[in-house]
Amino acid sequence: MPIYEYLCHDCRRRVSVLWRTFSEVEENTAQCPRCGGTNLTRLISRVAVVRSEESHLEDLADPSNLAGLDENDPKSIARWMRKMSKEMGEDLGPEFDEVVDRLEAGQSPEEIEEAMPDLGGEMEGGLDEF
Known about the structure:
By secondary structure, the chain is α+β, with helices and mostly antiparallel strands. The chain has two domains: 3-42, no CATH class; 53-129, no CATH class. It has helices at residues 22-27, 53-60, 74-88, 93-104, 109-115, and strands at residues 3-8, 13-18, 40-42. The radius of gyration is 25 Å and the shape is elongated.
């Protein structure tokens, strides 16, 4: 059952109309569910694509996501880290935020690691692994 969006020129609202079949769309005239008017223009609707987590992670691993990353520039690293955390959609905690804030302020990973020796816990190599 298709749902199409229309702009009603009578009440000036964007409305959705549910049709039972695709042939019904071609055979009948759309009617505004708000005002009953038939002076409608069909709009192009937004499309949502449902993707698996695996597909999303594959896109994150794409080398083109590293374009513009300068590993010698702490601010560039911070922008990349913020982008990746936003893409993952997870709160990585206050330590992550502090590291990114320090990178944005111009501190090098080595300086941050020296100032925050407990950072990373069991992770071997500290921040140098990034």
